[in-house]
Amino acid sequence: MNPLKPRMGKKATLCVAASIWIVGTIISCPTLLFFTTYPMKDHILCYAEWPDGPSNHSRQEYVYNIVFMLLTYFLPIGSMTFTYARVGLELWGSKSIGECTQRQLDNIKSKRRVVKMMMIVVIIFAVCWLPFQIYFIITSYYPDLTKKPYIQEVYLAIYWLAMSNSMYNPIIYCWMNSRFRRGFQQFFRCCPFVRVTPDSASSHRRTDTERSFLYNGSQSPTGQRKWQTGPMRRVNTMLTSQLNQTTSLCCSSQDNPQGRPVKD
């Protein structure tokens, strides 16, 4: 976005990461402090016993659920949506000065694909975690819902959906990003049905390097000796030898036009 703006340093990055861990630990403290178990006939019940009352009958639990939703759901979605929207507007809305080269166009397309991929990740996150967040808000207003039949199965399905969010991210990365896809292929290359495809970026770099070698070799003898190696050096050596032989024959024919033997 702002290439001339100084980037966040290592210490600042560590402070931000440490702050996130501290906030996450504080948010999880009520679960450690107020949750308890109660033995039943065929199972053990785990529930929250808040200072002002049990679970689904506590005002403190309701406030905690609201704060938990704001910090762990709406804040991440809002920040990621704002960030990726700005990047998307910059990529799709800005126009470069002059005519773009093919490499610049490919680079812009690659960045746009990354923005699309990250927006899909945000949408999947919102869909997976929304039922989990709403469940606790609804049961706080209607505590009798927890006594309905099959409510435990419904909660487990909602909980599984929320926890499965991280499972979808690698699938999205592999589907929409060639580098991630090649990384997965390298990781699972021992499997017989996995075929490792060549990296397009590496081939482009190799082609550009070969072009640079050819350019340097054709412009100066020093560059030719320095850069050209292997088969290229052998080919150029043969061409140079043939050119020298041809030049020698031409010079000899000019000095002796009748084809007479030359005496020492």
Automatic annotation (TrEMBL):
<keyword id="KW-0472">Membrane</keyword>
<feature type="transmembrane region" description="Helical">
    <location>
        <begin position="12"/>
        <end position="35"/>
    </location>
</feature>
<keyword id="KW-1133">Transmembrane helix</keyword>
<dbReference type="GO" id="GO:0005886">
    <property type="term" value="C:plasma membrane"/>
</dbReference>
<dbReference type="InterPro" id="IPR001681">
    <property type="entry name" value="Neurokn_rcpt"/>
</dbReference>
<keyword id="KW-0297">G-protein coupled receptor</keyword>
<keyword id="KW-1003">Cell membrane</keyword>
<dbReference type="InterPro" id="IPR017452">
    <property type="entry name" value="GPCR_Rhodpsn_7TM"/>
</dbReference>
<protein>
    <submittedName>
        <fullName>G_PROTEIN_RECEP_F1_2 domain-containing protein</fullName>
    </submittedName>
</protein>
<feature type="domain" description="G-protein coupled receptors family 1 profile">
    <location>
        <begin position="1"/>
        <end position="173"/>
    </location>
</feature>
<keyword id="KW-0675">Receptor</keyword>
<dbReference type="GO" id="GO:0004995">
    <property type="term" value="F:tachykinin receptor activity"/>
</dbReference>
<feature type="transmembrane region" description="Helical">
    <location>
        <begin position="62"/>
        <end position="85"/>
    </location>
</feature>
<comment type="similarity">
    <text>Belongs to the G-protein coupled receptor 1 family.</text>
</comment>
<feature type="transmembrane region" description="Helical">
    <location>
        <begin position="158"/>
        <end position="176"/>
    </location>
</feature>
<keyword id="KW-0812">Transmembrane</keyword>
<keyword id="KW-0807">Transducer</keyword>
<dbReference type="InterPro" id="IPR000276">
    <property type="entry name" value="GPCR_Rhodpsn"/>
</dbReference>
<dbReference type="Pfam" id="PF00001">
    <property type="entry name" value="7tm_1"/>
</dbReference>
<feature type="transmembrane region" description="Helical">
    <location>
        <begin position="117"/>
        <end position="138"/>
    </location>
</feature>
